[in-house]
Amino acid sequence: WGALATLSAQEGLRGRPFANIFSLSDGPPGPHGGSGVPYLYLTDLEISVQDLEINSNASLTVSLAQTPYCKKHKYDPQNPLCAHIIFCGNVVKVNDSETGLAKKALFSRHPEMESWPKDHNWFFAKFNITNIWVLDYFGGLKIVTPEEYYSVKP
Question: Along the chain (154 residues), what's the average pLDDT of each consecutive run of 10 residues?
């Protein structure tokens, strides 16, 4: 999961930053399952999705705090040694040729999604990454290009 930040389109918050938690996946479990592309399962009923319909730009933060790593090392989630990555870009619906990949990525890691209410008109989307920052040590962020990010092999 990660924190997706949008610019709110909601009455009373319009134009202000708004963050919400979303489950995501870049592929099925296993050493060769991940593509690096964050896929999401969304519905137009969700308020952040309504924000994205007005302005698809967003940021997505994913932290090692959601794994046993930081607790094992007794790192506070804000401690840079409990590394996190911040993606900037935009969120778009996947095209028909990518739907199967997105479905496999998400449902393999979040099986309960398949049973979510069908009348919510769920759809698959992806986070198109344009900028990446990594915070994994004291002293500031590291900039990673999308090309560097996608070239890494597990």
Answer: 96 94 93 90 96 97 95 96 97 96 96 96 98 96 96 82
CATH superfamily of 2-151: Electron Transport, Fmn-binding Protein; Chain A (2.30.110.10)
At 7 the pLDDT is 96
3-state secondary structure 68-132: HHHHHCCCCCCCCCCCEEEEEEEEEECCHHHHHHHHHHHHHHCHHHHHCCHHHCCEEEEEEEEEE
Domain boundary assignment for the chain: 2-151
Distance separating alpha carbons of residues 96 and 40, to the nearest angstrom: 15
State whether residue 151 is helix, strand or coil: helix
**Residue 33's pLDDT is what?**
81
Round to whole Å and give the CA distance between 60 and 122.
20
